[in-house]
Amino acid sequence: MTEVFVFLIVGAIAILSAAFMLISENAVHSALFLVLNFFCVAFFFLTLSAPFIALIQITVYAGAIMVLFLFVIMLLGAERVVPGAGPYHWLPRAAIALALVFLLTIGLAVAGGNVNFNNPPPPQPMLRLIHAADGPPFDVYLNNQLFEENVVYRQATGYRSVPAGEYAIAIYPAGADPATSAPAILGDFTLTNNSAISVAMLGAGSTYTLSRLVDNPFSTGADQARLTVLNGLPDAGPIDLVDPGLPSTTDDDDVLIASASFAEPIGTLLVEAAEARTLTIRPSGSPGASPLVTYHDLALARDTNNILIPSPERLSTGGMRVVPLVIATAALPEFGSPQAVGAELYTAYLLPFELVSVLLLTAMVGAVVLTRRDLIAEHRPRRQVVRRPLVGPQAASALATQIGDQESVEQILSEPAPPAEPTPEGT
Amino acid sequence: MEPIPVFVPTELYLALAVVLFVMGALGVVIRRSAILIFMSIELMLNAGNLAIVAFARHWGQVGGQVLVFFVMTVAAAEVAVGLALIVTIFRSRRSINVDELHQMEG
Q: What φ, ψ does residue B28 adopt, rounded to 5°?
């Protein structure tokens, strides 16, 4: 309830500051009350998980725009504003009455149940695929619909939202026709709302296994990285994730994640972000045993999800070895974070973004043109005054034949006309 | 998946936005100073932004916040041109009372 009380208090401040802005007789006071109102709205943006918009509100609105307002008020000396007056004495009262009627109508509509407050649907489950089985690329079909094409070994696809429900997953070699060829793996699983699921393909040779991991794809919050172990070794039994750098007084002090069985994901561990950390995988419950595989200088960046999948790989000589496979993905940005807003701006809304920048540029030029019209008129090129002789050459030769005096006619020709009156320029 | 925290229901934000918007509209009608009319328009735009951000959280769509970003940009452009107009009008008429500006000729 505290949040609602804070909301009501700040909301009251917002409404009061708006009211004082309306009735204040000094324009500067009005502007300052509006700044207070903008700060309240910025606070509401913060509570609505929009921190980026809240900061923009303070810097652009309460900062730049209101400074512009105050500047113009001071420049024009228009602080004193006589309220009301004007030729329409009845206008304020009529407007207030209309506003109250409007609010009353909305209130009645809400109270009468005519407004449908839909509850938002829960976020759809997100699904991705991890190819951790030494083998060719795969096509993935969900309920006989192509879901992801050409998933390559050692790679993970991006998360995609799918409707919640039961799914039959079928994985075919890339490019194979599902109608004629046999799938490499089949599996069934359920997706519930509000979840992020990774489906990993494990195994080597021709036997593959599907493993389902529940992810937390969001930010870790602190300077940490998420670590999960998925045992991809079908023959090795349970394994431990060990940090050889930790002091080991008893047998299992250095174990970070214990006894991960084949294809069974083990609960996620939050570790300090590190540029290079060496971790090893060894058979579970055998402290003295030599590691199955070592992750050398593993980069655990901040806000990443790292899935360690030790998996078998066939050698060209016919033998097998264990490779340290890591699937590291950056955490998804949180709702309303600057990353999320920026990603949206530069992908889905790139064209409006460009249009708005052009609009701003136009407004800038327009403001300059509007305020400095006189300056622009001064720099307009003057019309050239053309000096013409009083009579044309044909009329002059006709004159010369009549008078018989060539010299005086030439004099008339060379004498320029007085400059024409410059036409007054229209404004 | 991490749900968006909801402490105050969306309806309260909408009610506040409606009240602020109506106050802005009142200001446009009542006040006679062009600058105060502009400020009232800013108040209305802010109320609209508040409603959009509340809906963005309600439906979990970041697109609403991007829209608010655009609204703020357009508001900035509008203020720049509008204040330039006010300054120009004040220069020629020595007044920014909108009741006295009923002639189209400069």
A: -60, -40
